[in-house]
């Protein structure tokens, strides 16, 4: 929706044509670039006018009679949140957050400065009160509510001054309770909007509810008592409380039922979305491949290749290998996949350990790929590739079952082995060895690596020292969290 | 040839097509004389946990080819079958051996079924001849490690990072020799090739592999489970 709006205001397009060419985005509250509840941003996107204009209009119309404020509250109550319309639209905000940091700017700085009265002290961590937590509480909470409160206060003062200057009798005992009620309602309602800027759910802050409820009750009592008679105060307060409790008791079952219905609906929607995702993926991948296989069913090699490629893709989808992007394991999987696709010979790849890619590892991957490529072309399957990521070196073994070849008999013009494997490894400080065996050839590559990037590979002595928790040597970067919890039992046995 | 015994097997898999395929492949291959010195008799098939337990108890096979994912039971598939049949013995009065056969390479599947008591884990892409060899090995009480399972073991025991047990009995780490054997298996070596490479007998290789299997089943090394939870096999 945001993008549609941005397209609409693009300089290349005459403003008149945007109304026809781009469909108008739905009227929903935006999460990106919102200041209070995203009403202005949503309105601007819907109408195709700059958000600043909407905000200025709302503020200007609020000043005399509060009409803008009323409109704002009305829209807030009636406009749906952006996520509740199209579940697929929930992802873009978080995905494009860095890109939209500019538009979201007004919110960030305001919140930061609004809450920055405490930060200097927050750096002293040993303060009895957790200032950092207080700061994050203030900040995540709601610069929006703070801004609204300031607005209400300013409005009240302005209204009182205006009424006073108009010669009307200003009843402070009426205005103060009304302001209290409004502020309490804002506190209370602010918890309705239980998603933060990034679209993540945030927990309901009960303190806000309590403060809001308290202010509202105080305001109601103050309004009824009119500030004069103290003896009546307790009676009225009791009456107000009783009424509120009665309403709460009566409405509780309905609210609970609504809430649980909502939960059920939400769960169903999430399931449906997931199902749609999976169905889309299967359709794009598996069904297409099956159709291809049926058309080429005469060509056994093609069928095997298609099936193998599809299997690999499906595995990477199921086992979420995208999470390992940028690591040696992922690079090797991709390289072996290429070799398989090009030649239709399955390659058995086993990798133990993992580490992030760098240029030397890139050379290793290329050498492994070349060796495997040779194996599938000149030898017979099974072709096995084993890569072991150790603390001081990465070792790779590519094994085939062919007749093998003698390096000395390989003509010099064949750059494959000499240059792409041995030369490449040596340039990067590694070694390459080619062993001829009775039933095949094995290429052994070894690349020394610098000290581990993370303390996940213990030195051999670390395992015997009882003091520090044994770092999970077996846990690759992706699993550091699961492996970092020390197990006393294992410690004992290891030491 | 030397030992013309018969190995009776039960195939447990919820895919009927797969059972038929395995049966056809194995029977055609087991009929040829070079099939590893034993004949094969397929005693039964099952497609779910309950029926598998019933067939295994009734038929008392030597080896069960077991799919990891099966309907029924407590929801743990093959592991449930192994636990329910723990006391069942074959007609030769040795415990029924289980060989896990799965399309899944996920570590939690491997670890669950091995720790439940399976003596081997191979993927369904294995060719029929290798499968036959694996069946013979499991029937003898030895362990069958695919390259992937070996890689998993090296990773989970920290052996790839250089952790080696000082004494062989230590459950939480591999001995230097076991590590060598596992590395060669991960590199795609057959048992006899491993033996040749390390100048030991095939029987010794089998002993080492069985010992690793025992460690895999008994170790309390927390990485085994943490690893299995946090990561899948490549």
UniProtKB/TrEMBL annotation, chain A:
Keywords: Kinase, Membrane, Transferase, Transmembrane, Transmembrane helix, Two-component regulatory system. Residues 472-488 have a biased composition (Low complexity). The keyword Transport does not apply. SUPFAM superfamilies: ATPase domain of HSP90 chaperone/DNA topoisomerase II/histidine kinase. The chain crosses the membrane at residues 35-53, 59-77, 144-162, 174-192, 204-227, 233-256. InterPro entries: HATPase_C_sf, Phageshock_PspC_N, Sensor_HK_TwoCompSys. It comes from the Bacteria. Residues 26-79 form the Phage shock protein PspC N-terminal domain. One of its GO terms (biological process) is phosphorelay signal transduction system. GO terms for molecular function: kinase activity. Residues 1-29, 90-123, 448-495 are annotated as: Disordered. This is Histidine kinase. It comes from Terrabacter aerolatus.
TrEMBL record, chain B:
The modification 4-aspartylphosphate is found at residue 67. GO terms for molecular function: DNA binding. Keywords: DNA-binding, Phosphoprotein. Residues 167-232 form the HTH luxR-type domain. Gene3D superfamilies: 3.40.50.2300. One of its GO terms (biological process) is regulation of DNA-templated transcription. It comes from the Bacteria. Residues 8-139 form the Response regulatory domain. PANTHER family: TWO-COMPONENT RESPONSE REGULATOR. This is DNA-binding response regulator.
